[in-house]
Amino acid sequence: MSDWLRGPRGGLALAFGGDAVRYGELADAVAAAVLPSGDGLVACPVGTDPVRLITLVLACLERGRPVLVGGDAADAERISAALPLGTELALLTSGSSDPAGVRRAVARTNASWLASAAPLAEVAGIRANDRIAVTGPLHVSMHLYAALHALWSGAAVGDELSGASTLHATPTRLARLLEGDTLPAAAVVAGAAMSDALRERAAARGIRVTEYYGAAELSFVAVGRGGSLAPFPGVEVELRPTAAGRELWARSPYLALGVVGGGMLRRDDDGFATVGDLAEPVGPEMFRIIGRGDAAITTAGATVLAEDIEARLLALPGVVAAVVLGEADELLGERVVAVVELDETTDATAVIAAARARLSTAELPRRWFVSAIPTTMSGKPARGLLRVALAAGTLGPAIPSTSERSGA
């Protein structure tokens, strides 16, 4: 069987949409899969049935045929010639800051994902008798990896929370799942930093949370519990000073080969790479992610980080999700704007008052909007869509902070 299929032939492998597939059945389907003629990039577009997607990806990896996940035949034709030599897996992605869904392809080898399988199983405590729930579409890299990792572990993977022992989710998705009755005993959370309030909610439900920081371009970089992260096994981390803060660079066997279509990935001659995220040390070999350097807002001569403010807003009672944006201002250069999603019992004025006690004058949003936060397909807040809505004036009525009412 494939390097990714390590469960017994009679064991449950996949359970999506009510369909159960055993390991033996999946292995036979992979062996029998018919790929397009030639040796070109095989397209696996958005909307592909999960079982079909996994079968097709495994068949391509097994036969040394490059596969494009999340793109159609036209996408495959567009990027094929630009893919780095040795590409086995290309993942079409759009960043959360891209309002128009600009598509980029992250190119990597199969070995770069396989290398991290054993370390993740160890740090997250995933075993062969587990049942894993993925909470997003499989054409998104973190969810596809979660599904393949479950198969590598010999576990079962599907889309149902009922009966699952571990789920994979973004913080936004986990926050919404915590409102329900059925939750596994463990969660692997990535895609953005968790707030202390969300950790407390998960702990109150008895959920053991493993947090990791990574990116489609870097794969796993750091892991931990309680907000403080340490390098993921096999990863070297350097925090390099920049004007915006300390930029995180990583070197590991998990890095992608490259990105087609732009993006934030940068490399140096020593094998380190970065996507521009900033971090700050919190102890020996420990740090926390504070945001992306390109999310810096310069207001009244001070530079603040949108994601840092968001983390503090998410710690406030009643805040379900939050996005902070910079808006052009003739006097300030930029002013800080917050879009918050609140639970049904929370009033915006109470949140603004609480924020005033937690944030500095530069960090305090000058305008507030209460709205449901849209998300990308990977479950991250869709900053780009909110930025467009802010510019178009379609976010609804703004709730000014006290500082704006007073003209400060």
Note down, in words, how this protein is organized.
- With 408 residues, this protein is an alpha/beta fold.
- It is built from 12 helices and 26 strands.
- The chain has helices at residues 23-32, 50-63, 73-79, 110-114, 117-124, 141-152, 171-177, 196-204, 306-314, 348-358, 383-392, 402-405, and strands at residues 12-16, 19-22, 42-44, 67-69, 89-93, 104-108, 131-134, 156-158, 166-169, 186-189, 208-215, 219-225, 228-231, 236-241, 246-251, 258-260, 266-267, 273-274, 277-283, 286-292, 296-299, 302-305, 319-329, 333-342, 367-370, 399-400.
- Strands 2-1-8-7-9-10-11-12-13 form a 9-stranded mixed beta sheet, with helices on both faces. A 5-stranded mixed beta sheet has the order 3-4-5-6-16, with helices on both faces.
- It is globular and about 65 Å long.
- Pfam families: AMP-binding_C (PF13193).
- InterPro entries: AMP-bd_C (IPR025110), AMP-bd_C_sf (IPR045851), ANL_N_sf (IPR042099).
- This is Acyl-CoA synthetase (AMP-forming)/AMP-acid ligase II.
- Keywords: Ligase.
